[in-house]
């Protein structure tokens, strides 16, 4: 596994396979995606609990199981599975209410008050095993983890997008997107691109993507966006978006860029009585608004969406539909031992990198 031991320092280390409890599984990781939040942790933001195996965008197959685990989960050895990145406690008030993305048990570091998350806040020293992150050949899957069996022939490369797609599918649910509603997605990063896909899958029409990079906007259109606006090229981007929507603004705006200026723009692009869903984290930066004119007098609903709870099944369905050319999003695959090179490519966007995957078994067909 690749272990983050200090800021910008990742070491390949070997670990024993864990002794599994009766309902535990061990997953063989086929791919793990590199995410912007991995880079934050790598740089030392959010106070990472070193030593830590990064990676929460993984996909794989059942490699080992405790005595009851297969029957209890309805799985067989070798089944392809998606394991959710949130490991809920299932006991706190928020888990019981169905908001397991807000689980308050077991937090060790980032965003105090949020439960255990693979590859984010569980150090290798946590019993019973080190294997708490996707940058690894194997992942430990305890009884309280949420596991989805993948049916039929699995396209591993596309299915590796299940976690970011689930984040966006949750946002689309939170926005209550209905058929024929107009949508603007701000920010053509992976989450924004996946929001285009999830909104189209929910029947939104049209979907307009807004961003600063033409190559990403083109990719968004290839994934189903009905139009796009380059913020740096349009003289009045907000007006340009409204013009594309026939003048009155969008039914729903999804903000995925995570900057205060993009959030401010998002409020301006929703129609009167529309909804704005904030998805992108700003890294603690503030936003000043004038509530009377910007919210109240147009009766805007501003919502937020956090992580991926209750959305993996939607994501799996979208991937299996084959309707979207998700293959285009995965631009590079690096062997796990080249994680530093993969990070460099991801950060520099060299070769128009969008989603970079790590392959812990580089001889994979
Ligand atoms: Zn992520
Ligand atoms: Zn909980």
TrEMBL record:
<dbReference type="InterPro" id="IPR036291">
    <property type="entry name" value="NAD(P)-bd_dom_sf"/>
</dbReference>
<protein>
    <recommendedName>
        <fullName>Enoyl reductase (ER) domain-containing protein</fullName>
    </recommendedName>
</protein>
<comment type="similarity">
    <text>Belongs to the zinc-containing alcohol dehydrogenase family.</text>
</comment>
<dbReference type="Pfam" id="PF00107">
    <property type="entry name" value="ADH_zinc_N"/>
</dbReference>
<dbReference type="GO" id="GO:0051262">
    <property type="term" value="P:protein tetramerization"/>
</dbReference>
<dbReference type="InterPro" id="IPR050129">
    <property type="entry name" value="Zn_alcohol_dh"/>
</dbReference>
<dbReference type="InterPro" id="IPR011032">
    <property type="entry name" value="GroES-like_sf"/>
</dbReference>
<dbReference type="GO" id="GO:0043168">
    <property type="term" value="F:anion binding"/>
</dbReference>
<dbReference type="GO" id="GO:0030554">
    <property type="term" value="F:adenyl nucleotide binding"/>
</dbReference>
<feature type="domain" description="Alcohol dehydrogenase-like C-terminal">
    <location>
        <begin position="191"/>
        <end position="319"/>
    </location>
</feature>
<keyword id="KW-0560">Oxidoreductase</keyword>
<dbReference type="Pfam" id="PF08240">
    <property type="entry name" value="ADH_N"/>
</dbReference>
<feature type="domain" description="Alcohol dehydrogenase-like N-terminal">
    <location>
        <begin position="21"/>
        <end position="147"/>
    </location>
</feature>
<dbReference type="InterPro" id="IPR013154">
    <property type="entry name" value="ADH-like_N"/>
</dbReference>
<dbReference type="GO" id="GO:0008270">
    <property type="term" value="F:zinc ion binding"/>
</dbReference>
<keyword id="KW-0862">Zinc</keyword>
<dbReference type="GO" id="GO:0016616">
    <property type="term" value="F:oxidoreductase activity, acting on the CH-OH group of donors, NAD or NADP as acceptor"/>
</dbReference>
<dbReference type="InterPro" id="IPR002328">
    <property type="entry name" value="ADH_Zn_CS"/>
</dbReference>
<dbReference type="InterPro" id="IPR013149">
    <property type="entry name" value="ADH-like_C"/>
</dbReference>
<keyword id="KW-0479">Metal-binding</keyword>
């Amino acid at each position: 596994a690749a272990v983050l031991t200090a800021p910008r320092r990742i070491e390949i280390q070997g670990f024993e396979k864990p002794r599994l409890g009766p309902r535990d599984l061990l997953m063989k990781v086929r791919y793990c995606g590199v995410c912007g939040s991995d880079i934050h942790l790598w740089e030392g933001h959010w106070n990472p609990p070193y030593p830590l195996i990064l990676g929460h965008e993984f996909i794989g197959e059942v490699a080992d199981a405790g005595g009851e685990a297969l029957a209890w989960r309805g799985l067989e050895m070798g089944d392809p599975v998606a394991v959710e990145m949130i490991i809920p406690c299932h006991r706190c008030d928020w888990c019981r209410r169905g908001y397991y993305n807000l689980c308050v048990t077991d937090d060790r570091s980032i965003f105090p008050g949020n439960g255990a998350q693979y590859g984010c806040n569980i150090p290798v020293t946590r019993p019973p095993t080190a294997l708490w992150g996707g940058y690894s050949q194997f992942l430990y899957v305890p009884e309280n983890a949420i596991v989805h069996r993948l049916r039929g022939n699995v396209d591993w490369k596309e299915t590796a997008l299940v976690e970011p797609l689930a984040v966006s599918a949750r946002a689309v649910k939170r926005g209550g997107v209905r058929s024929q509603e107009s949508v603007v997605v701000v920010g053509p990063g992976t989450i924004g691109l996946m929001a285009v896909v999830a909104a189209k899958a929910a029947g939104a029409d049209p979907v307009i993507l807004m961003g600063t990079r033409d190559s990403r906007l083109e990719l968004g259109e290839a994934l189903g966006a009905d139009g796009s606006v380059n913020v740096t090229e349009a003289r009045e981007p907000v007006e340009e978006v409204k013009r594309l929507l026939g003048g009155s603004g969008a039914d729903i705006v999804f903000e995925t860029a995570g900057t205060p200026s993009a959030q401010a723009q998002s409020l301006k692009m929703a129609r009167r009585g529309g909804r704005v869903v904030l998805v992108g984290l700003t890294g603690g930066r503030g936003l000043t608004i004038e509530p009377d004119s910007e919210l109240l007098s147009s009766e805007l609903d501003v919502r937020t969406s956090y992580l991926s709870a209750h959305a993996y099944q939607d994501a799996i369905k979208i991937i299996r539909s084959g309707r979207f050319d998700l293959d285009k999003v995965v631009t590079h695959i690096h062997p796990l031992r080249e994680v530093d090179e993969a990070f460099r490519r991801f950060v520099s966007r060299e070769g128009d990198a969008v989603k970079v995957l790590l392959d812990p078994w580089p001889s994979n067909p």
